[in-house]
Amino acid sequence: MFNVSVFGSRPSNCDRFEVLLRPHFAALYAAARRMTRSSHDAEDLLQEVCITAYERLDELQDIEFPRAWLLKVMYNRFIDGQRRSGREPVDIAPTGAESQEPDLCAAGVPGPEELVDRDQRIDRVLRAMRCLDANHCALVAMHDVEGVSIGELCRMTGLPAGTIKAQLHRTRMKLGRLLSSHAMARPQLKVIGSDQ
Question: For the range 119-123, what are the long-range contacts, defined as Cβ-Cβ under 8 Å and sequence gap of 24 or more?
């Protein structure tokens, strides 16, 4: 399981860290991507989580559910970052065919109409999510997209299950109202070459 260190007595911290984190890395990145809505910010957030995990490697090794612990650390780091940044505007990651990973495009190539339709739906959802509280959107993304259970969310946030369920319900309802409004149905035009 572990590589033997130079002295042959114990696995190195790097080996232990890799064995503990590797099974959870893809899920952690996906959760960070959904929370931050940006691949660059997701990478930064995941790096902070990895640093914390490495610093507390002995504690992490003894935890029964390391994924929940790592997600809790990630959520707390995300909330701390939101508090530090205040209400700064959020840059949305590019969407569309040019932003897709090559491996994902090779799996199934959608036609131009499907790409436009998908991009419009993604744009509507992202615009609607920008109108909502970032903390509540993170909870919805963690639960509905990542499949994190209510119990895990309780452990991550320290909130009671009823509070989390209520926040999820209210956020979904607001998101639904925003998506059904005519303002979100209109595509936004971007003038290229303008300072706007």
Answer: 119/95, 120/187, 122/95, 123/95, 123/187, 123/188
Query: pLDDT digits over 136-177, tens only?
Result: 888 888 888 778 889 988 888 889 999 999 999 998 898 888
43: Cβ–Cβ under 8 A, 6 or more apart, which residues? Answer: 29, 32
Ranges of CATH 1.10.10.10 domains, the chain: 110-184
Evaluate whether the domain defined by 110-184 bears CATH number 3.30.160.270. Answer: no
* Assigned CATH class of 10-85: mainly alpha
- Give the position of tokens 């070459």: 193
Both tokens assigned to 138: 């993170």
Sequence-ordered list of residues with C-beta below 8 angstroms from that of 60, at least 6 positions apart, any chain: 20, 53, 66, 69, 70
Residue pair 142/31 in contact (Cβ under 8 Å)? The answer is yes
pLDDT for 196 beyond 90: no
